[in-house]
Amino acid sequence: MCMLWFWNPSNPQQPRSWPSDHALRGREVTSKPAMVDPEGRSRATERLRSRDLDGIAQFMADHARHVVVLCGAGISTSAGIPDFRSPGTGLYHNLQRFDLPEAEAIFDLKYFQKHPDAFYELCREMWPGNYAPTACHYFIRLLSDKGILQRCYTQNIDSLEHAAGIPAELLVAAHGNFDAAHVVDDNVGLASSYDVDITELQDALHDPGDEGWQELREHHGGLVKPKIVFFGEELPKRFFELHKADLALCDLLLVMGTSLQVSPFNTLLSLTSDKPRLLINREAVGSCDELAGGFCFQADSDGQDVFYQGDCDAGVEALAERLGWLKELQELVALGQKEAEELQHSEKLPSHSVFSEECH
After folding, report:
1. Percentages helix, strand, coil for the chain, rounded to the nearest 5?
2. Structural domains for the chain
3. What is the CA radius of gyration of the chain?
4. Per-residue pLDDT reduced to its tens digit, 138-148
5. 220 is catalytic
6. Residue pLDDT, tens place only, 171-227
7. Strand, coil or helix: what is 287?
8. Per the database record, which ranges form the Deacetylase sirtuin-type domain (predicted)?
9. How confident is the model over 279-287, as a mean pLDDT?
10. Which residue among 175, 182, 220, 243 is the active-site one?
11. Could you give the CA distance from residue 222 to residue 235 in angstroms, rounded to a whole number?
12. Rounded Cα distance, 118 and 95, in Å
């Protein structure tokens, strides 16, 4: 039985030497540049003072200038969007009403080409604007605002990162999202043929029923879907073009709200095993016993892995408090909720009815 390093959220005391927010923004980089081995992996030159949130916060102030974020469905659940696999409440459970052969069929390219109506109902429900970004999304936004976000790699398809104001150049939507759309060839199994303005699909799905998307299909000669990666489709080129360089430059890895069960996304951990890494999650995932270069939380390990066990929003709020960013974070969350409410009352969004009321 191994001992794990857990952060206790009941102790919110800040580090005594924590610099002011203005000092952090204007501070020149004092840490040495990351060394890179012959295979392109960087070697860390600075270490955490302690393996807890205080240590992470102090490291961010002193050394972190290239933070990489890996995030999954857990950062969006507080917005009202179910994760995929939670029994009784997850997305796959809620999709049983469509009588799918299996829950994953909703994201199967061949199934979509034969039975598109179920996926279009899901699109209506998850369309950007139906939900407001969470504290996690806005914490990533703050990393960008303060100039220390190298990249955010997200598994989520909800586009809430974009809604939170994270610049597109700092985002990699590994599984796609609602930012763009394309035509899928009607010949089952073939890839997409060309891009379509996402607003065309939004307009087609505005009213319930099949008429809108069927007219769009006739107009473009094939089904139109958001650029969400289905089973049978490749990940975006951007993922493969950027991840090695980003993780070589990374000086702090922040992982939030993901089960780390999906490849190749979970293989990104193997490129950061020598870096300080923080996992914010309800349970420990991606252990070194399961993944190459995975987390090693044992007290006697040589790694610099920290685990905050709990709700993702609570985790970033606790870290933001130590960084002196909590007020900014709360203001962004409040503003985002107000904007989402105004959009929901504008009648510009597609109608939706997939999830039961208790999910909102």
Report:
1. 40, 15, 45
2. 21-75+134-174+244-325+336-340 (3.40.50.1220), 81-130+175-234 (3.30.1600.10)
3. 21
4. 999 999 999 99
5. no
6. 999 999 998 999 987 665 455 578 999 999 999 998 888 999 999 999 998 999 999
7. strand
8. 46-326
9. 95
10. 175
11. 21
12. 9
